[in-house]
Design brief:
- With 304 residues, the protein is α+β, with helices and mostly antiparallel strands.
- It has ten helices and four strands, in the order αααβαβαβαβαααα.
- Strands 2-3-1-4 form a four-stranded antiparallel sheet.
- α3 runs antiparallel to α7 and α3 packs across α9.
């Protein structure tokens, strides 16, 4: 028996053990895959321009998104070290004031600094003469989260025995504003990237449809189902998005390394799983917008 006869017998045995439905589905999947590949081949050198353009805009998105996570981490870490300084009046009942502050929601810790200790430290640093201690007793109030500082500040201000309050309010507000600005810019970039990606893919798929116009017309006449015609074109857009995101990982890695060095310099931990989150979101955005651009083009130019 020749090798060709043996191969034929094996193929028949394999096919006999596979349900016909499975074979049909496999053939359909294979044909859809081949149609997608043929569509990419028909696009020719345009593929390079499309993918590099998508990689560029995805790199901008990834870099901004990753930077936003770092800025948020810096803002949170800075807010965590902020403390409210409460200065007590001369006749204040220190224990009662401390107890009242500790009962306030979001207060994490209250540290008592006697005026004698503060005065001794100041005299040592500034080499002051022997003067009467003008400083009040001080409480350092630690809040659980930066966003709760203002609420705790307002509550402590109402307690009897608290003469004055202070914390780096302006710096905290500016840091929060900066964080909000970066987040807003990132959101706008996502919108712009979505528009550009959809426009690029839309025009590309329109070009492919024109190349396949006669072939599509023949498939219609043969009674081929709508989804069989549409699926390869939509998949082609998704592939463009995937490959573009894959290429953008190279410059994004450089951005990640740079941000890690900044975190190390300021001794602030990098956000947990920040890179994984950015990569995951970037691929979802790229594939989603790529497929959406194809779908809109198919819907507009193919009345099937």
């Amino acid at each position: 028996m020749s090798n060709e006869d043996a191969k034929t017998i094996i193929k028949r045995k394999v096919k006999s053990h596979l349900p016909k439905d499975w074979l049909t589905e496999l053939r359909i999947v294979y044909r859809l895959g081949m149609e997608t590949i043929n569509g990419i081949k028909r696009t020719g050198l345009m593929n390079i321009a499309i993918i590099t353009t998508m990689a560029a805009i995805l790199t901008i998105f990834g870099a901004m998104f990753r930077s936003t996570l770092s800025v948020s981490s810096f803002a949170k870490e800075f807010g965590n070290v902020l403390e409210i300084s409460a200065y007590l009046s001369q006749n204040a009942n220190n224990k009662q004031v401390i107890s009242s502050i500790q009962s306030i929601e979001h207060v994490q810790r209250v540290q008592f600094i006697p005026k004698s200790k503060s005065w001794a430290k100041m005299k040592k640093e500034l080499d002051l003469a022997d003067l009467e201690n003008p400083l009040p007793d001080t409480l350092h109030i630690k809040v659980d989260k930066p966003e709760n500082i203002e609420a705790v500040y307002d509550s402590v201000k109402k307690i009897n025995g608290v003469e004055d309050l202070n914390y780096a309010k302006d710096i905290a507000q500016k840091m929060q504003i900066f964080n909000n600005v970066v987040s807003t810019v990132t959101l706008l970039i996502i919108v712009v990237i979505g528009f550009l990606t959809i426009a690029i893919i839309h025009n590309t798929i329109q070009f492919v449809i024109q190349l396949k116009k006669d072939e599509i017309e023949i498939m219609r006449l043969m009674g081929v189902s709508n989804w069989y015609i549409k699926t390869p074109l939509i998949t082609q857009g998704a592939i463009y998005g995937f490959v573009g995101a894959l290429i953008s990982l190279v410059p994004l890695n450089a951005v990640q390394n740079g941000l890690l060095k900044v975190h190390q310099f300021f001794m602030i931990p990098s956000p947990v799983l920040a890179t994984n989150i950015v990569v995951f979101v970037m691929f979802i955005v790229a594939i989603g917008f790529g497929a959406l651009g194809s779908y809109l083009s198919v819907k507009k130019h193919l009345q099937v």
